[in-house]
Design goal:
The protein has 289 residues and is mainly beta. It has one domain. 10% of the residues lie in helices and 49% in strands. A hairpin with a 3-residue loop joins strand 5 and strand 6.
Length: 289
């Protein structure tokens, strides 16, 4: 179902774009000895829509030198799948440079129920998207704004920056990570996300594996560019909304900020993703506690 696919994509994008703000550290900021402080991060998010729990999304990020690999998987269902059952797996890889993440591949496979589904794979090269494969072939809907080659230069996929580029030397809630405009392509749609700071808050622990400590809240403005129908009511709602926001929390022992909470309006109520646990580990143990 395109709606579920795009909600998942937008949630991932919102997460990554909050991490793209602020100035990047110095010339050796992404050296292997810096990344080794968080060689693996596993984050689990609870996803709700209109007050109902849909399921969970788990994201694992692994660093090997300046290379990274990411894998996310989720299942969203209503009445244990009797009414609605969506399963998806997403993956990405690339390397981290002085200027941020440089993706090489992004893929999303999902099924709805027992029969319907899509498989999308996107590769990058020469600073932009080089190829997109969608199975079964995508049927272009009437009045869809076409995506041009120029619009795919310098874009990020929804996963490549989620846990890599939210960086600050200040672990106490640095609002500078909210200053950024990020170009994104998810394989279907091209859009920008414009981030601005809202406020700093202190989060209280919401469970035995939850987080307590500083967080920054960023407003996110969704600007559709291509790959969508101009009269799509969901796209119109998202682009006109001033209520999209992402909360970021620091991973202690690193310079990284990671998504804690994501809020966005949808045609059927507010969608939220809230972290329920984060594990960050290496030979030199990192923590969000």
């Amino acid at each position: 179902m395109p709606a579920a696919r795009h909600c998942m994509s937008l949630a991932a994008v919102a997460a990554l774009t909050l991490g793209l703000g602020g100035a990047f550290p110095g010339e050796d900021a992404f050296a292997e000895n810096n990344l080794s402080s968080a060689s693996k991060i596993i984050a689990v998010y609870r996803v709700d829509l209109g007050g109902f729990n849909l399921g969970t999304f788990e994201l694992t990020t692994v660093f090997r030198g300046d290379a990274y690999e990411m894998r996310g998987q989720g299942r969203f269902s209503i009445l244990e799948g009797l009414i609605y059952d969506w399963k998806g797996v997403t993956a990405g890889s690339g390397r981290v440079t002085d200027n941020g993440p440089e993706p090489s591949m992004y893929a999303l496979n999902y099924t709805v129920g027992a029969k319907r589904g899509e498989r999308m794979r996107m590769t990058f090269g020469d600073g932009g998207v080089s190829q997109v494969s969608i199975v079964p072939p995508m049927r272009t809907l009437p009045r869809t704004i076409p995506v041009t080659k120029d619009q795919l230069e310098g874009v990020l996929d929804p996963m490549s920056g989620a846990f890599l580029v939210a960086k600050s030397d200040n672990p106490n809630g640095d609002l500078r990570v909210c200053y950024q405009t990020v170009p994104v392509f998810d394989g279907w749609q091209r859009f920008d996300l414009v981030l601005t700071p809202k406020k700093s808050v202190t989060v209280k622990k919401n469970g035995p594996t939850g987080y307590a400590g500083p967080a920054v809240i960023c407003r996110v403005k969704f600007i559709p560019i291509a790959g969508h129908q101009a009269d799509n009511p969901g796209i119109k709602m998202m682009s006109q909304s001033n209520e999209i926001e992402v909360w970021l929390i620091p991973v202690r022992g690193t310079q990284m900020y990671v998504p804690y909470r994501i809020v966005l309006p949808t045609p059927v109520g507010y969608g939220t993703a809230l972290v329920t646990s984060i594990q960050a580990g290496s030979p030199r143990r990192a923590s969000i506690d």
